Amino acid sequence: MNEFRTTAVLGAGVIGASWASLFLASGRSVAVYDPDPNAKSTVLEYINNAWLVLQKLGLTENSNQSGSNIEFHTSAADAVAGADFIQESVPERIEIKHAIYREIENALTKDAVIASSASGLTLSEMQSGFKDPSKLVLGHPFNPPHLIPLVEVMGNEKTANGVVEKAEAFYRAIGKVTIRVNKEVPGHVANRLQAAVWRESIHMVASGVASVEDIDTAMWAGPGLRWAAMGPTMLFHLGAGEGGLDEFCQRYSDSFNRWWDDLGTPHLNPQIARQLIAGVEKEANGSSTGELTAKRDEMLTAILCASRQLRDHD
Ligand SMILES: NC(=O)c1ccc[n+]([C@@H]2O[C@H](COP(=O)([O-])OP(=O)(O)OC[C@H]3O[C@@H](n4cnc5c(N)ncnc54)[C@H](O)[C@@H]3O)[C@@H](O)[C@H]2O)c1
Q: In 81-231, which residue ranges form alpha helices assigned H by DSSP?
C-alpha cells in the first residue's frame, strides 16, 4: 500500500472522473488536469455521487473523502510532476493523446508509470507519442471504472521491465481485477467479447428471431447471470458433469460448430440502428437514461457486495 501514493488523472470526463473517485477513495492523492472550465465542479460532483457506492463496496476505508487530497491543475505537466501513477483518459483521438504525451514527457518522475484508458487505439499507436515510451502501458477499464472490477493491462517490447507488473499491483491494491493482454488486437479482450455477443443480438433482431427486449432478457436472466459468476469456458467445464470440458466438447462440438456456421455478420447501418433504437425505447418503457443508469449501478453494487465475500475466499 505504500506504492503509488501520488496519482494524476489526465482527462476527467466519463472515465477520468470515475478513476479520480476510486484513487481518492483508496487514500491516494489525485492531481487532475482537464482543460474544460467546468471540469472541477463536474468532477467534484461525480466524486460526491460515487462516494456512497464506494463506501458500500468497502473501498473508502483508507480515505475520508478529504477535499484536500485532490488538486486541479491548469497544465498537464504540473499535474504529473511528482505523480507516481498517471491514468490518461483524454478523448480517443491519437493526435490528442500524442499532444498530451509530448506535454508531460519531461515532467514525469523517473519511476512514474503512465496507463492509458484507451478502448480503441492500440498501445503501439500511442507509444509513438513519446520519445521514450518505456513508462506507458495500456490500463483499459470498463465503464464505470470505480464499479466494474476489470482492467486490461498490456505492455510490449518497448515497455520497461517491471512496469506492467507495477501497474497490475497498483490496480489490485485499489480493488481492481486485472488481466494481461499479450497481443495487440483491436478492442483488446473484453470489448471483443461484447462485440461478438452484440453482433449476434443484432443479427437476431434484424432477422426477426426475437425482440430487442427478449434478447436482452435472455442475456441478463440466462448466460449473463452465470457469466457474472464464472467465465464461459469454466462454465462449460461444469456443463457435462464429472467428465468436465473433455466430455462437454465430445457431446456438444457438433452443436456449437453448427451454431457458429449459422451466426450472422451484420453491419451496424442506420436502418438496423433505427430498429434497435425502437426496440430499446419499448424496453425502457418511459424510464429515462438517468433512471436506468441508477438502476444499473444499484444492481451492479448489489451483485458486487453480495459476491465480495465469496471472491475474497477464492
Ligand atoms: N466511455 C467509456 O465507456 C470508456 C470505457 C473504457 C475506456 N474509455 C476510454 O477512456 C478515454 C476517455 O473517454 P471518456 O469516455 O472519458 O471521454 P470523455 O469525452 O467523457 O472525456 C474526455 C475528457 O478529456 C478532456 N480533454 C480534452 N482534451 C484534453 C487534453 N488535451 N488534456 C486533458 N484532457 C482533455 C475533456 O474535456 C473531457 O473531460 C478514451 O480513450 C476512451 O476510449 C472509455
A: 94-104, 123-127, 163-173, 190-206, 212-221, 223-227
